[in-house]
């Protein structure tokens, strides 16, 4: 408990802002609201700067990809007044095969690159979070229902990684994100089955 209180008191304003933006963005995504994307952009830019400051360049790059995918997601979700918004939909079995194939191949490639070029102690777990995080963000931008179970698994895996690294506040954030993803999965499924896509 003492370590948790010590870490909480050491949080910077940037970390607190990133925490708040992330929670708000995922809550809005779970509610199927397009304002998730501007908040994800802001949070991604903030975390890019924060991670670069601490020489966590892989995490900074991942957040840069999240920012780009958030721009794409915003464009997909808000196609303009004259076009119908992208509806919530399910993936086809071929999409699942591509997703898992790219995920496994990408994880192996990124892990091997980390092992060769970076001082890392969790290359396989870190690479899994990186690769499947990008894929989950893509699915969310495409309003695919299956983005949520991918996020649940990744958030719980990331929480374990951060707990192992003694980042207890960040681990708690990711457990909370997993709970929000579970809510998002339930709400999007309800909207899909009820025909409420907006």
UniProtKB/TrEMBL annotation:
GO molecular function, one term: nicotinamide riboside transmembrane transporter activity
Localization per Swiss-Prot or TrEMBL: Cell membrane
Keywords noted in UniProt: Cell membrane, Membrane, Transmembrane, Transmembrane helix, Transport
Principal subcellular localisation of the protein: membrane
Taxonomy, superkingdom: Bacteria
A GO CC term attached to the entry: plasma membrane
Record InterPro entries: NMN_transpt_PnuC
Membrane topology: Multi-pass membrane protein
Any Pfam family: NMN_transporter
Transmembrane segment boundaries: 46-75, 96-118, 169-186
Keyword hit for Transport: yes
Family assignment from sequence similarity: Belongs to the nicotinamide ribonucleoside (NR) uptake permease (TC 4.B.1) family.
Role played: Required for nicotinamide riboside transport across the inner membrane.
Protein name per Swiss-Prot or TrEMBL: Nicotinamide riboside transporter PnuC
Lineage of the organism: Bacteria, Pseudomonadati, Pseudomonadota, Betaproteobacteria, Neisseriales
